[in-house]
Amino acid sequence: MLGVTAAASLVSVVRPDVFALTEEAPVSISAETTTHASVAAAHVAPEPTPEEAVQLEQLYRDFESENLIPLWTEIGDLMPMVPSPKAVPHVWRWDDLYPLAARAGDLVPVGRGGERRAIALANPGLGGTPYATPTLWAAIQYLGARETAPEHRHSQNAFRFVVEGEGVWTVVNGDPVRMSRGDFLLTPGWNFHGHHNDTDEPMAWIDGLDIPFVHYADAGFFEFGTERVTDEATPDISRSERLWAHPGLRPLSGLDDTTNSPIAAYRWEHTDAALREQLLLEDEGHPATVSQGHAAVRYSNPTTGGDVMPTIRAEFHRLRAGAATERLREVGSSVWQVFEGTGTVLLNGEPRNLAKGDLFVVPSWQEWSLQADAGSQTGLDLFRFSDAPIFERLNFNRTYTEGRNK
Fold first, then answer.
1. What is the pLDDT of residue 114?
2. Distance CA 157, CA 172 (A)
């Protein structure tokens, strides 16, 4: 019978209170003091005898031949003391992205084959994969004057957010939806959709999808649609908005809950008004904002009150000039885009300046905070999307607020 080996000593008992979020058992935010290796080092096992060493070597060869890997050699990577993402915080500058997209518009046709002239944000920590995070895909999509992106559908949930420009309609299941500055537009999974530019000017926007999550789960399907769009009309308001986009009112013809929001477009004028009124209520001394000078809204599904899609959460944040958020760590990742104003994002202690259109990614459990420039005329407006619904449904969600959690 083999004795306890040095390799086997890597097996350790992890404190059961490490992730408990109670006053008695505080959340652990780093692995600076306790790691699997440090625990193993404190429990030194006797060296194997020569006979045991030979048997161990053969044991590991037999593991390999049978495609087996023992947990005790991998536990540090598989079960870290705290989330240790390969994705890294990163900022993409709109002033760099847009000219590159325009060059692609001159050189790369849109149509069958590539389907979309979309350029993905590739996180530097993810080894060249076209992913912003392990669960989220973000891209700048560029559609030239009078161009049409043909229809298709796929399992992946998608949305569009427009930081500038107008003149494009996205057609979702036959419903033409106008795309304009500040609008948040949905294309839930397995809905046919295409885009057409009805103007003589190009337009760009950002796409967000759950492509990495669906890819790793081997859950993706794809189907081609028509070569153009099924309806080339250009209405100001889509049919879905006419039916569903009335505050507090639900059509009796649609009383069943839906997995995805039935609203195709969340218009900027409503988002802007909601944020403005929160700050005005704060001025009047009423509770309305997330924190002092920080207004925020979440886009929601009117049939459930929950998120607009089952894998993606979307929000909009507004900070008054000089206002700052708390320093947070969250399980799950997010991508942000500056809509208006200037400010600073602090990513793991490193300040990064922000301007209109810039995008940045916050990987899981990486500390972040925001501050609007004190001299800004507009404050700081930001759109955010995240994978929070996934982690909440799995009960993996955790949040740590600097100075509040001990």
1. 80
2. 12
